[in-house]
Amino acid sequence: MAIEGSVQQDVKDQTGWDRVKALFETSEDGTISEELQSIPTIIGIGSVFGFLLGGQFGIRIGADHYVKQNQLTVYHSQMHAQREFQSAKTLGFVKYGSRWGWRMGLFAGLYSFLLTLSTTYRDKNDALNYVAAGASTGALYKLFGGWRSMVVSSLICSGVSLPIGLLAQAGNTFLIPEEYKIKVKEEKEQKRRKWEEQLQVTDSIIENMEKELESEKEQSQV
């Protein structure tokens, strides 16, 4: 059967697409792979960071806009003026913080997801993954802005990702011990073999059920 042939495939002979497919498989308790578990956290961190950063710009923009639009406004008291001014700054913080927050979260999540796919497909952790993820994220982020915006955004994101990828590659090479890399790789292969054994058991159960059904049919015909 096709299942039996696939489960008997050696881990070393896996193609890039095989590793990508395995990335989306869930365990017995329904949890997703470790590589994908960090993406929601990255989205949350990116959204919070974007909200706070955009909010700081929003405070300045809201304050400047309020001062320009209310130079001739007559206030009942100094407290009234301060309260209106603070309301304008708060509104600017929330408005621009929300705008930056969801965009930063979307960008961070998309970049992390594409980086994980590239690393899994190539089975390598080097700067090329970061450049590819940056270029793809930049193009997808400006998907509805025209091809020129897509090209410019792709070039900018890939250029920014290059030094980040080189630093990550250098850190992975010099800071992470080789024994730890081997241990992580062995753990992944053990999980893969365990999953293959479970598929083999499932396949044998299905075959036994088919045989029993066939035997029951033959007996009923007799």
Detailed description of the structure:
The chain is mainly α. The chain has a domain at about 35-125. It has seven helices and no strands. It has helices at about 1-5, 15-25, 35-70, 80-120, 125-140, 145-175, 180-220. Helix 5 packs antiparallel against helix 6 (about 145-175). The longest helix has about 45 residues, at about 80-120. The radius of gyration is 27 Å and the shape is elongated. The chain starts with a helix and ends with a helix.
- Average pLDDT metric: 81
- Strand content is under 5%
Please state the overall shape, judged from the principal axes of the Cα atoms. Answer: elongated
Question: Radius of gyration over alpha carbons?
Answer: 27 Å
Helix content: over 70%
Number of contiguous helices? 7
Task: Please give the alpha-carbon distance between the first and last residues.
Answer: 29 Å
The sequence of SSEs as H and E is: HHHHHHH
Report the structural category: mainly alpha
Pfam family, one: Tim17
Organism: Actinia tenebrosa
Transmembrane segments: 39-59, 100-121
Keywords: Coiled coil, Membrane, Transmembrane, Transmembrane helix
Secondary structure layout plus pairing:
Elements lengths: L1 H6 L8 H8 L10 H36 L8 H45 L4 H15 L5 H28 L3 H44 L1
Helix pairs in contact: 2-4, 3-4, 4-5, 5-6
Keywords:
disordered N terminus; transmembrane; 82% helix; membrane; Complex I assembly factor TIMMDC1, mitochondrial; TIMMDC1; mainly alpha; 7 helices; coiled coil
